[in-house]
Amino acid sequence: MEEARNLGGSNLKAPSVQELAKRQLASVPPRYVYDDIEKISYNSSMLLPQLPVIDMEKLLSNVGDGHDGDLELERLHFACKEWGFFQVVNHGVSSSFMEKLKSEIRAFFDLPLEEKKKFEHQKGNIEGFGHDMVFSEEQKLVWSDLFYMTTLPVSLRKPYLFPKLPASLRDTLEEQSKLFNSLAISILCKLAKTLRMDEKEMGDLYSDGVQIIRMNYYPPCPEPDRTFGVTPHSDTDALTILVHLNETEGLQIRKDDIWVPVKPLPNALTVNIGDMMEILSNGVYRSIEHRAIVNSDKERLSLATFYTFKMDCELGPARSLVGPDNPPIFRRDRLGKSMEAFTRRQFIGKSFIDLMKVESKDEES
Length: 365
Fold this sequence. Notes:
Elements: H1 17-21, E1 53-55, H2 56-59, H3 68-82, E2 85-89, H4 95-109, H5 113-116, E3 128-130, E4 145-152, H6 167-195, H7 199-206, E5 210-218, E6 230-233, E7 239-244, E8 251-255, E9 258-261, E10 269-273, H8 275-280, E11 290-292, E12 300-308, E13 314-315, E14 333-334, H9 335-342, H10 351-356
Parallel strand pairs: 1-2
Antiparallel strand pairs: 2-10, 3-4, 4-5, 5-12, 6-11, 7-10, 7-12, 8-9, 8-11, 13-14
Helix pairs in contact: 3-6, 4-6, 6-7
């Protein structure tokens, strides 16, 4: 679930990995090889821990007097505090629409390369079809193709992208944007309640916030143990919602210093806390490092939807949560300014969190 980061700045083009995979290479090209990949230390006889599961119908039901809503709020608090990730069921997105979404995204990546190139990211911007941030010809690459696009607010949509998409895909993504935005707001409201923070304070942050989608294609790889689909990172945003578009697993999260594979439930959505929510909660909730691995003989597709607080807001620990007994551990600053400073750093691990810590001495000039 790669974070939205900043969609501007320098970005060089890289080869389509989907096209590379069609050559049936015997080995991974050197530029895609990583020498220090941590392996999962579990063996097949061990019982793997599983992500907490949150039932949205129960979460949104009545609270008080021991109702299901109270228990589900407790589960949500535990999931965000101890895991930073959870799966959501009964989320209101129909299985028929999920199948339509999968079909349309699959069809996009099945287009001839020349057709997809019509949507290539333009110089200085990562939005569109291509590769993740590429700043130099020597930079290591990952084994995936992607399509980034800002979907909300509508005023931020690039005129050369959304309106030019195939009509069926465009209509499907329009509906997906609305459905997932509603779900994200519902979750954020409940997070305010579990944190016991001022709900208006939360509302002011996500009102007019930014929604970005990322469609991911991970083709089969000749040496999956030597490369990444996505390198380890935490998401910079407030909240991420991931759709697993086929049955191939690949998402792994770092739990108690061990990489744990995520096994998605049928029709479930995977949600994770981003850096902005860790900052807002003053460290009560944690954004967790995660990565995507690739498969030797199976492709994997996914759709990540990122939710970022509005850029002109002042991001820091919620004022309703800090005080003499709970001093802020993160700085307070305009979000847009902090994101600009962040783009000058290397996108590794939890670098945005490191930037925002009170003791950070990052140069602002």
